[in-house]
């Protein structure tokens, strides 16, 4: 399966909406991730208005799964408030991606809400790999 950037963005949109409100910072991150992946502003706005149910993510590569997880956690922290519903959603998606749900707590301490603050992604990826269900 080819990694579908719109499907990834849809997961982020579902996370952003999990607390019933897409904050402005969350919307900006979704737009910047979408634009960086060649998705138009109009398409992103349409996706925000009508998020689709999350599709099967089991056939993604380990790199793609990690990227999904990283962006999910970054988005969860984007508005400066982390709601329990967002954590639960991240844990559910982590499990769908093939991780133990405890990966969210482990790596979220290393992921910054501000995308301009660069985290050591290789270190975080190594930590996350320990939580993959084999």
Oligomer: single chain
The assigned CATH architecture is Orthogonal Bundle
List the domain count as a whole number. Answer: 1
CATH topology tier name: TerB-like
For the termini, the CA-CA separation is: 20 Å
Low-confidence stretches: none
Backbone structural class: mainly alpha
The number of E-state strands comes to 0
Treating each run of at least 4 consecutive H or I residues as one helix, how many helices? 7
Strand content: under 5%
Average pLDDT level: 83
Write down the overall geometry.
Answer: globular
- Most strands sheet: none
What's the alpha carbon Rg, rounded to whole Å? 14 Å
Helix content: 55-70%
Highest CATH level, the class: Mainly Alpha
What's the gist of this structure?
The chain has 134 residues and is mainly α. The chain contains seven helices and no strands.
Structural account:
InterPro entries: TerB-like. It comes from Chryseosolibacter histidini. This is TerB family tellurite resistance protein. This protein is mostly helical and 134 residues long. It has one domain: TerB-like (Orthogonal Bundle). It is built from 7 helices and no strands. The radius of gyration is 14 Å and the shape is globular.
